[in-house]
């Protein structure tokens, strides 16, 4: 079969059915091999990243740096809330600030823990929550 020539493309296109089919199947096989190789490599890379710590390139003779000092003391909770409550021991007394450090990540749960701790500390009347801040 001969295709017409166009003014912008002087080449003629001839298609041989058998050759075209062979080239197409070979192209598909090659693409499958490339995709499978890429996917296997990607899975191996993900597996390595999940199991090993990152390796940063270092210059020859360079020693690893010491870790930065911690911002919190060793025994301090790493997560949680600092809850400040207004508490009283008598009905007409001035409010006193009671602080409680909770390791709970829930703000409401931290407030409930602070109220229980205030009652246990001898403050039967809890006025209101002054402030709740994350640690």
Any overview of this molecule?
This protein is of the alpha+beta class. It contains two helices and three strands. β1 and β2 form a beta hairpin. The longest helix is centred in the N-terminal third of the chain and has 35 residues, at 17-51.
Q: How would you concisely characterize the structure shown here?
A:
The chain is α+β, with helices and mostly antiparallel strands and 135 residues long. The chain is 36% helix and 19% strand.
- Which parts are unreliable, with pLDDT below 50 for 5 consecutive residues or more? none
Please give the share of residues in helix. Answer: 25-40%
Radius of gyration: 36 Å
Helical region count?
2
User: Which secondary-structure class do the elements indicate?
Assistant: alpha+beta
N to C succession of SSEs: HEEHE
Distance from first to last alpha carbon: 78 Å
**What topology, given as strand order, has the largest sheet?**
2-1-3
Please tell me what the overall shape is. Answer: elongated
Mean pLDDT: 78
Main sheet overview: 3 strands, antiparallel
Please state roughly what percent of the residues sit in beta strands, choosing from under 5%, 5-15%, 15-25%, 25-35%, 35-45% or over 45%: 15-25%
Number of strands: 3
């Amino acid at each position: 079969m001969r295709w017409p020539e166009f003014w912008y493309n002087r080449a003629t296109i001839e298609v041989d059915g058998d050759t075209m089919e062979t080239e197409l199947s070979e192209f598909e096989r090659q693409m499958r091999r490339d995709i499978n190789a890429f996917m296997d490599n990607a899975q191996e890379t993900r597996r390595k990243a999940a199991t090993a710590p990152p390796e940063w390139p270092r210059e020859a003779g360079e020693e690893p740096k010491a870790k930065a000092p911690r911002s919190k003391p060793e025994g301090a909770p790493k997560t949680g809330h600092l809850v400040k409550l207004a508490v009283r021991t008598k009905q007409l007394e001035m409010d006193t600030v009671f602080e409680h450090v909770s390791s709970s990540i829930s703000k409401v749960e931290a407030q409930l823990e602070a109220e229980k701790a205030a009652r246990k500390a001898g403050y039967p009347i809890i006025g209101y929550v002054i402030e709740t801040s994350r640690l």
